[in-house]
Amino acid sequence: MDSIIRGANWYVEEINCRLRLEEVKLPHLQREMTAYAMGGGFFSLELPSEVQPLTAEASFNGSHDDIRSRFGREPSDWTTCYYYESLLNVFPTNPAGDSQQGAGAPKLKGRVVILKGLLNEVEQATIKGLKATGQTRMVWSSIVLYHDVVDGRTIHKFDVANNTLIINGQNYTAEHNRLIAA
Predict the structure, then answer these.
(1) In the chain, what's the furthest Cα-to-Cα distance?
(2) 35 φ, ψ to 5°?
(3) Helices and strands (DSSP H and E) totals, the chain
(4) What is the pLDDT of residues 82-141, one digit of tens each?
(5) Distance (Å, rounded) from C-alpha 9 to C-alpha 18?
(6) Do the beta carbons of residue 25 and residue 56 sit within 8 Å?
(7) What does residue 93 show for φ and ψ, rounded to 5 degrees?
(8) Phi, psi torsion values for 68, nearest 5 degrees
(9) In 3-state terms, what secondary structure has residue 175?
(10) How many whole angstroms separate alpha carbon 155 and alpha carbon 173?
(11) How far does Cα 155 stand from its chain's mean position?
(12) How far apart are CA 131 and CA 68, in angstroms?
């Protein structure tokens, strides 16, 4: 049992949203698939190509103009969001990968996801009487940077401006960018 989420936080630029945040949904990661049929073959398959556009959502208790005011910005006037997560390893492993039950206190590790994009959707909370009956929902899209780091190790990095795709620390675009002189 490892990487159990034990809490998270969301920053919009320098704004700490911990006390107003209801829920965060990080982007769904998916590749575009291209059908490939081989001449004279009995089979076809789908090969992955581009990473599909990313979106992230957050729901807030209340109406916060310091965040809502970021809606409507144009490309290049990006907003950077930071997601912080505390992960618990109940059965830490030794260097050989074996579980160390009874090895002392559970181990925590940190995860940070950095997103750079635009706040392109704001759904206001529903009001009934004197109170809100829902949350203010905000959607970030046009995401040009997604950087997922666990304990200092890059798990994923999608950087549109630099045409960079890093998966588990390996740069999948370095040779491609060299060949096309990107």
Answers:
(1) 70
(2) -70, 140
(3) 2, 14
(4) 999 999 988 766 666 666 655 567 788 999 999 999 999 999 988 888 888 889 999 999
(5) 5
(6) yes
(7) -105, 155
(8) -60, -30
(9) helix
(10) 15
(11) 11
(12) 19
